[in-house]
Amino acid sequence: YKRQVYGSTEMFNNTALFRETCKNVAPITDIKVYPNPGFGEYWVEGQNISSIEIFDNLGRQVLSTNVRDNLNKIPISIRDQSEGNYFVKIIDTAGEQWVFSLIKLEL
User: Fold this and answer.
1) Predicted structure pTM score
2) SS3 7
3) Which runs of E-coded beta strand occur in the chain?
């Protein structure tokens, strides 16, 4: 079984720049991570999410959670982490992986 990895990033509410520079454009997903940027408290919203992992810009895992009860809106928190860029890896129940960029700001 071959797993696919997809990614998306949003800058100033414009995803076109990212997609124009990619050779392989990922299919559109209904998964959302918001607010972005934010202050440490975020929501992951989407269908059939099985797990969520967050990594810092050095690749260290700072959060890992399995989603139970087929929730469609999951709260995540990295309030204890420093300001910076993070990556959110979301795996759905079909084994597909999605990676989102996340920006954490200090209050």
Assistant:
1) 0.73
2) strand
3) 5-8, 32-34, 41-45, 49-56, 61-66, 73-77, 84-92, 97-104
